[in-house]
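Changelog note: in this version the structure field was regenerated for every chain. One regenerated record is shown below for reference.
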Amino acid sequence: MPKSKCPTCGSTVKKQTYTKQIEKKRMSYSKEALLLIDTSIETVDSSRDLKLNDSHIYGFLSEIDKCDNDMVIMSINNYLKSNAPKEGKGLKYLSAIIINNNSSKSARKRHEYLSMDRVPPKID
C-alpha cells in the first residue's frame, strides 16, 4: 500500500484501497441494479470536476447496503430521469433518495398490516 504524507503534521498516512470491499458489497445486488448503479456512478463522475475515488463509491454502497433491490432500481431510474447529476447532485443525494424510498416502503407495509382488520363473515 502506498503511503502519503499528512498535509498538517507531515506524518505518513497509510492509503487504503477499497476494491475488495466494493466487490463484496456489489455481490448482493441483481444485474439490473448493478447496471444502474454503475451508470449513475459514471454520470456523477462525468459531471464533476473532481473525480470519484474508491472511498466515495464504497461509502455510497455502504449507505444503501440494507435497502431493497427494487427500491434501488426505482430510485436510480428517477434520479437519472430528473437529470440530477447535471445539476450537481451527487452520490449523497442519490443515497438519501434510496434510503428515503426504502423507509417509506417499509412504513407503508407496516401501516397496511396494522390497518388490516379481520375478514368479514360470509353471509349466505
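Spot check on this record: The first strand starts at residue 3 and ends at 5. The helical segments are 19-26, 31-47, 54-63, 69-81, 91-115.
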